[in-house]
């Protein structure tokens, strides 16, 4: 199979995405405009007939004082990952990016390797001998994903070192709730007792959930800053969210939504929701330290799940989890909260690196480590 690759327009890229069930929102042309600190490029793969058969959003981060770049395709590219010869896809990409000045490439194949159902995870958490999700037997295993992984190794790609300093990256483990073919009653019955009780409690106490507008981003951001201080993470500025909404809504007027949960006039929880094809994501969340007993977070999550169903979605994605299941793991509460929805833990192939210029690649790694 002979494939060529070249720069494509944002319009070509978006048309290609519209022809697929789902593509990560991180691989939309609009996301390149959100990440303004990176130079961006849409690339397309063409077959011998000149038909566009694959696409990717490339983000270029420059090495300090040298015009060389790390090329990053978060949760992409969108190609045939089940191909017998992945080199026919990945080798032209490497050549194109090297000619554009890249010293290294990082990709995030959107390929599922394993899945664990909610009951499997609950049993694993209850088992003191199981301390990591990967210690538990998965409910499904994708042999084609394993084939793709082996091909990438043969082609010279390697998973980055854990906490390698090249940036936060995208999660390898996520939690998803399949909604296709189900009703609201089905989804409620699939949740655990605590989730159902909290949803009912929020409704009984008068928590209301509404869709916000860009005018409400300042209120969301105040709650987000409170959440960041409480949960010890570095917050993004209000301008980042304003730019994100402007870029994503310019591409599709229902690409991103803001949800607000109020109780007696007070904002108690707020979230952002993103949609591409039949896949929706819970992206950012914020909650008040006060009035936690009214369960605004459960109420807003339930509204986003119902709206995914109403929009014809197939999957509601609660994004990242870690694989630690030990009783003393600091992130155990996160997976316990998400598993209460009755969904499943999903492991992707994770991110993979190809060094095109090893000395520069190592220099960039060191620079990012020092930046923290």
From TrEMBL:
The keyword Transferase applies. The keyword Cell wall biogenesis/degradation applies. This is Lipid II:glycine glycyltransferase (Peptidoglycan interpeptide bridge formation enzyme). SUPFAM superfamilies: Acyl-CoA N-acyltransferases (Nat) (SSF55729). It comes from Microlunatus panaciterrae. Keywords: Acyltransferase, Cell shape, Cell wall biogenesis/degradation, Peptidoglycan synthesis, Transferase. It comes from the Bacteria. PROSITE patterns: FEMABX (PS51191). Pfam families: FemAB. Belongs to the FemABX family. InterPro entries: Acyl_CoA_acyltransferase, FEMABX, PG_Glycine_Bridge_Synth.
